[in-house]
Design brief:
Layout: H1 6-12, E1 31-35, E2 41-45, H2 53-58, E3 60-64, H3 71-79, H4 85-90, H5 98-101, E4 107-111
Antiparallel strand pairs: 1-2, 3-4
Length: 132
């Protein structure tokens, strides 16, 4: 399990800081503000664009799906955090994370820590080479 230093976790709780924790796929996304005619402000996450899959494949390792595997298990295995399944989904042409593991024997891409553009930096875990 990835341990977040206490000071990093404290930064996630600072009022006015980014509304998503550092481990979220939306942490680096720009926050927009819509102002209604009555002055009400509605905050929203602007679109999070991903690089073309070909570029993502260059910064990934293959994984052959086994029967019964789930996306959260892959997040734990490769990144030490089951909530990081979205990194694997981003590197593959799927809309629903269940599509990653629906078919045993299929090869999917698992991004290298810090290698997939738009990633959070160097998260490590067993089975994935650390770029440093």
């Amino acid at each position: 399990m990835r341990v977040i230093e206490p000071y990093e976790r404290a930064l996630d709780d600072v009022p006015g800081a980014h509304p998503y924790p550092r481990s979220s796929r939306y942490h680096g996304a720009e926050i927009g503000v819509y102002r209604a005619e009555d002055g009400t402000e509605v905050r929203y996450v602007k679109r999070r664009l991903l690089p073309p899959l070909g570029e993502a494949a260059e910064e990934s390792v293959p994984h052959t799906v086994s029967a019964g595997e789930r996306a959260d298990q892959l997040g734990q295995r490769y990144f030490g955090d089951p909530g990081q399944w979205w990194r694997i989904a981003d590197a593959n042409p799927v809309l629903d994370p269940r599509e990653l593991t629906d078919e045993p024997g299929v090869e999917i891409a698992v991004p290298l820590p810090g290698g997939f553009p738009g990633g959070m930096g160097r998260l490590g875990g067993p089975g994935v080479r650390d770029g440093g």
